[in-house]
Amino acid sequence: MISPDVKEAVYDSAHWALLQELRGKAVKIMDALAARSLSSAVYGSVARGDVNKKSDVDVILPYVASSHTVELALQMGGFKIFSRRIAQATPSHTPKAHIYLDALEEACVTFPLASFRSLELEFYRFGGFQRVEGVKEEKRVPGCDKRLMLIQPTLRGHMESPIRGREREVARIVGVGVAIVEERVRVLTRREQVGRTGIVFSRELEEDEVFEEALKQVADTNPIVRRRLARK
User: Fold this and answer.
1) Whole-structure pTM over 0.85, yes or no?
2) What is the 3-state secondary structure (H, E, C) of the chain?
3) Which end of the chain is more exposed for a tag (fewer CB within 10 A), N or C?
């Protein structure tokens, strides 16, 4: 018998069409990066399948890469870069580059400007993480959303169930360590209670700025960023 906490979502034709559209955008981005030997993945609802009209196409390079190479790959792939932002979420997080490919910031390529911590890498798998081959094969993966619900794809749509109290089971299903599940429960629960907390810094780059140089300038004046970059 299915628990009353478990709900099934059955996708209609409009949902499947939207998912196909968003995944098509993701594939074009990932193929452009792959043409320059840059391996990437899509994460979040596009990987899980539970998209809606507000869903973004979020592509991640889970390793340090030359920003020049990334930008060149996107431009050679026919993409126009609308804006670029550098940001660090918390003192322990890695500064990241964000490249937005449309004016509404609905398609973004992200990559770290220093090596990710293991928990940061698992953050993307926690939310659903899929390489281009899986997207092309129309596969979907389990992952967790910001409501702290586990999304498990089915042939008709997905099943969703609460994460709280099931951290070890959820970690096994998603394929991550229990530490990242516990961290996300803690962070998102606190966000529900007190709202979004501040970040270390976030800055939009000028047209002629380079990510790596901009990060060095920030680190020269921000000791929190400097300390994070000093860690291995």
Assistant:
1) yes
2) CCCCCCEEEECCHHHHHHHHHHHHHHHHHHHHHHCCCCCCEEECHHHHCCCCCCCCEEEECCCCCCHHHHHHHHHHCCCCCCEEEEEECCCCCCCEEEEECCCCCCEEEEEECCCCCHHHHHHHHHHCEEEHHHHHCCCCCCEECCCCEEEEECCCEEEEEECCCCHHHHHHHHCCCHHHHHHHHHHHHHHHHHCCCCCCEEEECCCCCCHHHHHHHHHHHCHHHHHHHHCC
3) N
